[in-house]
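Fill-in record for Sugar phosphate transporter domain-containing protein.
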Amino acid sequence: MKQAKRALNRFTAMRNRENPTKWESYKQVITAVSAYWIFSIGLVFLNKYLLSSVKVRYSIERLNYEFPAFQLDAPLFITWYQCLVTVFLCLLLSKISKNYGIFKFPSMPIDAKISREVLPLSVVFVAMISFNNLCLKYVGVSFYYVGRSLTTVFNVVCTYLILGQKTSGQAIACCGLIIFGFFLGVDQEGATGSLSYTGVIFGVLASLSVALNAIYTRKVLSSVGDCLWRLTMYNNLNALVLFLPLMLFNGEFGAVFYFDNLFDTTFWILMTLGGVFGFMMGYVTGWQIQATSPLTHNISGTAKAAAQTVMAVMWYSELKTLLWWTSNFVVLFGSAAYTYVQKRVMDKKNSGASPASQAKSDEIKLLGRDGDAAEEAV
């Protein structure tokens, strides 16, 4: 009798996992979306602080704390260290999964042949995260989204030039909206006196790199068995080597060696935290897609960008004009509309495909569409 009850309890628990209640489904969606927003926004603000921080005094009643200003003029070194953290976490989690089976994580064999096959993508990957962090160094967080908003436009152009794939007229119209919003934003940022043309140039180059990253990802994903985590590990592993001559050419070894806070515990905690956040972006992005849908994921990313902009304006006590806010709205609306149009096209193409292959196709295509997962995460 007791064995029958235990068997019934196991069956009930298994059925509840397979068929969660409406509240459990809502709870999973809310948790996934919240995690995505927290890690994504947190990573942007944290990287901005590491790249161009100033002293900030924060007071709560009688408790006063002054955040130090590191001002390490070595953005490539900061990115290199975050890549190192990502590689370490991938190898560590793979080892724990293999030896203890607490959770499932793909194996991470280090193969020189696979590394060479991934190398072209890694070159684009290094350019992408370098330009992205250089953009963040020179522009404010509030302008950050608009400054690198041309990713969608370059994605359409590069897909046509490299892959020969055409885009619908509706999608091109959405790109036109994004371009208009971008130039309006640049104009209004200049009107406020806080525009950095260097940051804008880096933002445009970052957008181009993201589009190329999406195309090369589709080409080399089969080399790592269609495993996104394995591709992340090889990308970051190659980046550790590729960054070294770039740091030497940029004079960053000397900047790091003579850095006043090189042995500051807080500095290294924030550096490591940035790497952990970058690593977690890969997980929470996939989690949000799984808990919702590719379309909802991109809508969430667009809404997150709007919230991030508002938070930055409030946090840094910035004053923006109505046209400045209009430029942000135009870019956000154009990006959301493009996502919706492309999702309809993807649904038509996948209408005869199996759910598994459709999910994989959507996930791969989102690698180049999601600005946070592609541009912020290392």
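KEY FINDING: Confidence is low (pLDDT under 50) at residues 11-16, 56-61, 364-378.
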